[in-house]
Input
Amino acid sequence: MAGSSVPNAIKYVLFLVVVLGVAYFGVKLGMKTETPISNHPPEEETLTSDLVTGTAFPDVTLLDMQGSPISTQTLLAGKGGLAVFMDFACPPCKEMIEKLQRAYTNDISDITIVGVAFAKPSDVAEYCQKTGITFPVYCDTSLVFVNKYMVMNFPLLVTVGKSGIIRDYTFDSRLPIEGDRIRKLIAE
Output
């Protein structure tokens, strides 16, 4: 009896190894394998929007701080730049806005920045004046980016090439704003 239980125990262990191996590798094979241009931190894997690398940046009508309409196509056409989606009450947004402002003042004033806030023009103007933001911030009061393009996590920084194609994006306010890298991505 003892001799027959050993082969059965070995068979059982082998069976478990195979089942666990298939389960493990099945999960691994089912995971997203596309590697974006930048090194997106692992915590970004749960943050999403429809504004992703390789897609066209949408033409959306925003309002400037005086309430006049302007399209993103007009703002970025032929020159590319950065679009930053923000919520003024969000601490990571404040961190990214401060970094962008420092970079805009010191290194990237030649790069178009399109700030996008989901607030009234008067509130945006007041916030920019109070915090010293000098790059342009526009208002998506109709929430087009939220409803149509699923921009629901903030901050979202999108690099748009001269061709109008999204070259990179990040939700991570801790990443440095590197002018040379941004210029290279915009030019491609």
Observations:
- The mean pLDDT is 83.
